[in-house]
Amino acid sequence: MRGRLNVRDRTLLLAEAGPHYPAPSSRSEILAAWEHAVSVLPDRPEAWYGLGDMFFHFGRELAIPNSWERAAEAFRRCLALDSTLAGPLEHLVEMAQIDGDTATAGRFATLVIAADTASEIADYMRWHLALARGDSAALLQMRDRYRKMTSQSLIRIQLFAQEMRMHIDLHGKWIQ
User: Fold this and answer.
1) What is the pLDDT of residues 76-107, one digit of tens each?
2) What's this model's pTM, rounded to 2 decimal places?
3) Other CB atoms closer than 10 Å to residue 159's CB: what's the count?
């Protein structure tokens, strides 16, 4: 059904599915597809989010210079087009946390929580907020709630902890 899509939507589909779909595409080919998408669709927030997400998750693996900064810029451009999207804010929380910018992490986590207090990852964002504030009592309360959290929140906490470990291994520092 690709042929029924207009050029703009087909561009997004190729970036999302990979340029060789249904055959697999390499990460670098998918990144190139997202870069093409933002060049063709600079007004589409999903194109900027997709590009930022690739830089965020795979920039280091692909040895892309300044991938972290490029991810942040793509997420900011996405939010400039649609400030209601949680995905770019969630990644900006994580990036600020890793960079040790607890004020920004807390501000963005508060925005995500306010947008949807019952989301699948609300507890994950509350955990980030407690971490950003250095609130050890709240972090202990969060630990007591692990059995009540959604699997998405628990998975995200685990994945973020692993990301922090990789960051420490690469840069030798922990967040304040």
Assistant:
1) 999 999 998 989 999 999 999 888 899 999 99
2) 0.86
3) 12
Question: Which residues make Cβ contacts (< 8 Å) with residue 154, sequence separation at least 6?
Answer: 146
Full 3-state SS string of the chain: CHHHCCHHHHHHHHHHHCCCCCCCCCHHHHHHHHHHHHHHCCCCHHHHHHHHHHHHHHCCCCCCCCHHHHHHHHHHHHHHHCCCCHHHHHHHHHHHHHHCCHHHHHHHHHHHHHHCCCCCCHHHHHHHHHHHHCCHHHHHHHHHCHHHCCHHHHHHHHHHHHHHHHHHHHHCCCCC
Q: Residue 133 corresponds to which tokens in the numbers above?
A: 């504030």
